[in-house]
């Protein structure tokens, strides 16, 4: 049941991605509703898949890496649908839906043996959920940053093309960037704290400086500086956009670190 | 019944003619009543704007109607002779008249394609005609359809979405930098006409704070009064620039008033909040090197003109889409017009044979007074069934041919076979009259068209 739903979800996200990319390049707005519809249906299947999976696994089991990434991509779509519902900017889908698809596909591409995160405590799923929610915030910030940089470039070079007309105003993107980081940062902080506590219980040490933990700490420090810069010395607009793009690279590297650690634990 | 439009527009007549023919609102009612007093003019609406004066009408005969409406227009302004007027007039009938109305409503015939005023003007013209009861079933339907077609064009194409004036292009750009202009501050440096116009647009879009500076202090104070803004001394407007989100510059100065370092300083002071600078002056007043300053967006008159040009082309592309929509919609409307022609015929036919039946039955029953009520019913039933069987095929054929190109020919034939266009042998019976009144009291189109049919029969 769950795996069938996942497959359907992936197919629908793929269709939505293609549809959203075509929408991005065509002058007509006709595709926006179709793309949105496909995404929404995909989201329903995704929800069912996640629920079925959660119901199937016993309470003592722990989230696999696949489940974590699947949850991440589900949250991305949820945030997109919420923002779209509130602000009506379908173009956001042209960036966020592909991102969700990519994370789902890369999760599925991982060999089955890797995903099981080993240890051990019931707090672990809280750690995974919080970290992933933080990552979702940074992902939205990343998307807003990329869109900002594109729109900024188009305005500066005075190229008033289709993309220009579809992308929203600069200050909206900057605000979206700020809000997503402001939300993502405390979530990541809590994710790291719960992770450290569970590491203490499982391995007897809060920090072992494995790739995952190192990545997480670097990411945390980076976003801390980004936020501080925005609040104190005006690191907003273009600079903030650049920084969040770089920051999201840290997030990705950390996730790679998780996979590596998984390998380490398994081997 | 034929729909006809006779009129002139910016495309066929110079302003000298248009202004003479234009009918002021106060005299519209009188003009409409005069129009409908002409023989053969059934319905009428007068659309009079600065770009067009058009009479939309439903007439009994196309040629006669055309002449009458020309007469009407010539009489509208006595200083215009019909020789002066006629060369500027165009006229369309039937589907082309309907198409013209739809195109006008959708702003495809406007001077600036896609402008939205015309739809409001059409609605007003329709309201006035309704108030003076000079429109009927056909015009009401067609004009309402035109309004809904115009709305469809507006929502389904981007014909009215983009700016086609330089001053409005500035607003459009501002909205790509600031999503909400309500909290923004605009600074007006110098008082060029285009900059003032752009400022006015920005205020209309929600900008509340306006700062104004001109080389002549009094001028700035006057303008500030006009815009509800604050005047700033010209000497230190650069220091105040950091407070402005949008800077509109248009002075007569022959050199750069604002340099890249001025803008850089302002942006730094603003904590990198984006700044939108528009230079509408020729020669330019803002150093083009500003383009290298991050978070400052400078556009000069050429950029804005270029944008407008692009938008115009887009609008024309969208107009083609709109034209296709109109072709569809006209087809629907024409179809309806045709059915309207057949429906009254069917009703007239029904009434005519019913009347013959009634008279014959009355005559016969008068002589057969010994029949029992049951037998009388039988005789009546016999008459009804013969009549119904006789006209059944005709009715069916008429209904079936409604939409074929032969439709009018069948209608014509039926009218001649059953001599429907001649006066009826007697006046309407009490029963018919009450049915007629009942038909009128209900408001649906169908009932209305039936009552129209009754009038025609009489």
Question: What can be said about this structure in brief?
Answer:
The complex is a heterodimer of chains A (267) and B (458). Chain A has 267 residues and is mainly α. Chain A has nine helices and no strands.
Essential attributes:
heterodimer; A: 267 residues; mainly alpha; 2 domains; 9 helices; 81% helix; B: 458 residues; alpha/beta; Beta Polymerase, domain 2; Rossmann fold; 3 domains; 6-stranded parallel beta sheet; 4-stranded antiparallel beta sheet; 17 helices; 10 strands; 12% strand; elongated; disordered C terminus
List the helices and strands and how they pair.
The complex is a heterodimer of chains A (267) and B (458).
Chain A: H1 2-25, H2 30-56, H3 65-87, H4 93-109, H5 124-156, H6 162-166, H7 170-203, H8 211-233, H9 237-266
Helix pairs in contact in A: 1-2, 1-4, 2-3, 3-4, 3-5, 5-7, 5-9, 7-8, 7-9, 8-9
Chain B: E1 2-9, H1 15-21, H2 28-37, E2 41-48, E3 52-59, H3 62-76, H4 82-85, E4 90-93, H5 94-105, H6 117-131, H7 137-156, H8 166-177, E5 185-189, H9 193-204, E6 209-213, H10 217-227, E7 230-231, H11 237-240, E8 246-249, H12 260-269, E9 275-279, E10 296-300, H13 301-367, H14 373-400, H15 407-417, H16 430-441, H17 445-457
Parallel strand pairs in B: 5-6, 5-8, 6-7, 8-9, 9-10
Antiparallel strand pairs in B: 1-3, 1-4, 2-3
């Amino acid at each position: 049941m769950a795996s069938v739903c996942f497959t359907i979800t992936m197919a629908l996200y793929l269709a939505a991605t293609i549809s959203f990319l075509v929408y991005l390049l065509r002058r007509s707005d006709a595709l926006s509703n179709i793309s949105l519809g496909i995404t929404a249906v995909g989201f329903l299947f995704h929800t069912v898949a996640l629920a079925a999976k959660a119901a199937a696994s016993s309470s003592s089991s722990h989230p696999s890496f696949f489940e974590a990434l699947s949850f991440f991509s589900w949250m991305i779509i949820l945030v997109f649908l919420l923002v779209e519902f509130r602000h009506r900017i379908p173009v956001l889908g042209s960036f966020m839906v592909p991102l969700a698809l990519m994370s789902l596909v890369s999760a599925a591409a991982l060999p089955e043996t890797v995903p099981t995160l080993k240890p051990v405590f019931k707090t672990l799923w809280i750690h995974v959920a919080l970290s992933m929610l933080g990552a979702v915030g940074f992902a939205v910030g990343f998307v807003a940053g990329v869109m900002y940089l594109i729109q900024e470039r188009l305005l500066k070079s005075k190229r008033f093309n289709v993309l220009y007309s579809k992308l929203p105003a600069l200050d909206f993107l900057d605000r979206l960037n700020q809000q997503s980081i402001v939300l993502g940062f405390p979530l990541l902080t809590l994710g790291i704290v719960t992770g450290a506590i569970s590491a203490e219980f499982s391995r007897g040490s809060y920090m072992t400086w494995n790739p995952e933990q190192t990545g997480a700490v670097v990411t945390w420090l980076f976003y801390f500086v980004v936020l501080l810069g925005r609040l104190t010395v005006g690191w907003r607009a273009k600079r903030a956009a650049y920084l969040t793009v770089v920051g999201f690279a840290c997030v990705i590297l950390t996730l790679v670190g998780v996979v590596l650690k998984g390998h380490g634990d398994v081997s | 019944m034929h729909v006809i439009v006779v009129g002139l527009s910016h495309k066929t007549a110079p302003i000298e003619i248009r202004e003479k023919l234009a009918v002021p609102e106060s005299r519209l009612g009188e003009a409409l009543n005069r129009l409908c007093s002409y023989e053969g003019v059934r319905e009428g609406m007068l659309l009079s704007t600065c770009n067009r004066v058009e009479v939309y009408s439903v007439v009994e005969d196309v040629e006669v109607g055309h002449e009458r409406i020309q007469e009407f227009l010539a009489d509208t302004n006595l200083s215009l002779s019909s020789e002066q007027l006629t060369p500027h007039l165009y006229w369309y009938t039937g589907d082309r008249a309907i198409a013209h109305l739809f195109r006008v409503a959708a702003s495809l015939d406007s001077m600036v394609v896609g402008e939205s005023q015309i739809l409001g003007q059409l609605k007003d013209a329709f309201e006035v005609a309704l108030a003076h009861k000079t429109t009927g079933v056909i015009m009401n339907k067609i004009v309402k359809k035109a309004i809904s077609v115009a709305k469809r064009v507006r929502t389904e194409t981007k014909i009215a979405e983009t700016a086609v004036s330089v001053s409005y292009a500035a607003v459009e750009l501002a909205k790509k930098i600031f999503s909400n202009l309500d909290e923004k501050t605009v600074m007006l440096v110098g008082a060029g006409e285009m900059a003032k116009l752009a400022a006015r647009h920005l205020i209309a879009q929600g900008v509340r704070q306006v700062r104004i500076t001109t080389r002549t202090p009094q001028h700035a104070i006057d303008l500030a009064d006009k815009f509800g803004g604050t005047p700033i001394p010209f000497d230190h407007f650069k220091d105040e620039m950091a407070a402005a989100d949008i800077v509109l510059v248009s002075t007569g100065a022959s050199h750069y008033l604002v340099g890249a370092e001025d803008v850089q300083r302002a942006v730094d002071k603003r904590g990198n909040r984006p700044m939108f600078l528009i230079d509408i002056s020729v020669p330019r007043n803002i150093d083009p090197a500003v383009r290298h300053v991050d978070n400052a967006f400078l556009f000069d008159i050429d950029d804005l003109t270029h944008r407008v040009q692009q938008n115009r082309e887009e609008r024309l592309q969208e107009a083609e889409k709109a034209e296709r929509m109109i072709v569809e919609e006209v087809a629907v409307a024409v179809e309806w017009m045709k059915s309207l022609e057949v429906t009254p015929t069917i009703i007239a036919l029904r009434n005519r044979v019913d009347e013959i039946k009634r008279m014959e039955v009355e005559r016969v029953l008068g002589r057969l007074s010994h029949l029992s009520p049951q037998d009388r019913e039988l005789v009546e039933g016999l008459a009804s069934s013969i009549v119904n069987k006789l006209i059944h095929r005709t009715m069916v054929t008429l209904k079936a041919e409604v939409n074929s190109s032969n439709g009018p020919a069948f209608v014509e034939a039926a009218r001649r076979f059953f001599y429907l266009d001649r006066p009826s042998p007697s006046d309407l019976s009490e029963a018919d009259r009450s049915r007629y009144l009942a038909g009128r009291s209900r408001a649906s189109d169908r009932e209305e068209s039936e009552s129209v049919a009754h009038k025609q029969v009489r």
